[in-house]
Specification:
Blueprint: E1 7-13, E2 18-23, E3 29-35, H1 46-56, E4 62-67, E5 82-83, E6 96-98, E7 105-109, E8 113-116, E9 122-125, H2 128-137, E10 143-147, E11 152-158, E12 161-168, H3 170-179, H4 181-186, H5 194-203, H6 209-221, H7 230-251, E13 258-261, H8 264-276, E14 281-284, H9 286-297
Parallel strand pairs: 1-4, 4-7, 5-8, 10-13, 13-14
Antiparallel strand pairs: 1-2, 2-3, 6-7, 8-9, 10-11, 11-12
Length: about 300
Amino acid sequence: MTQQATTLMGIDWGTSNRRAYLLDEQGGLVRQHDDHEGILHVAGDFEGSLKNLLDALEIERADIVMSGMVGSRNGWREAPYLSTDRPVAQLAQAMTEIGTSIPGVRVRVVPGYRYVDPHGLPDVMRGEETQVFGALALGAPDGWFLLPGTHSKWVRVEAGRIAEFSTFMTGELYALMSEHGTLSKVMGARESVPEAFAAGLEAARHGGFTHTAFCCRALVVADMMPAAHTASYLSGLLIGTEMHEVLRRGAGAMTSPVQVVGSAALSSRYLSALELLGIPARAWQPDGVYVAALRALFNLPG
């Protein structure tokens, strides 16, 4: 390989997947690479995995900023959580540097955030803070940010600081309940049924989740709902439980748009639920948001 200038690279390194973004000197996206080399798949050899990635992309010199679970206790190097009194604009100054034996390569990790609610219950995030940072850099206003996923996050931003956030195991519970247990036995086809989704969203208003989840099964065995509606009903019930909880915690009537940062597939049902509940929303494309965050972390022009 010929000698190259230093490449600016961002890596969103999660539990199962890894996404790399190569930028030019002006912060424009030059190339993107996705693979399944998440932290669970590298057997602890993070440096070797990174070296293989650089070789595959034919990169000799790189300044690398990483975010996500790579900075967790089970990742490459634990990056200490920031407290929520630290503005998101300070993420660049708070990155943890990781030394490697790869010549010409600098590696830094973005820290996550830790929050303790008024009842003393803690919550943590890794990776979502970078997406919030990117959306703010693109002009998103203060207010609520929704980051759907296996573990959905609701983040409220005030004056450039994360005032509070809550995590919901919505995606994980949907996967578990649709594959195992009593609901999986009655669940029919998995196609989207909008009226069943809306019914589940409405049912979430009326009781605790463990009860309403059983009612989902009872609706089928009592011949009050077709089995083919179960998947959509459960999805609406889970997402509705999440949203009503956020509203009950003091968000009140959300008059300003919720900023939704996620893939189209992940975001579509949340956007549908917000519309059904009369809550305004704006969707952001996650790759564009991440690139904006990288520009800010590398201190490049916006």
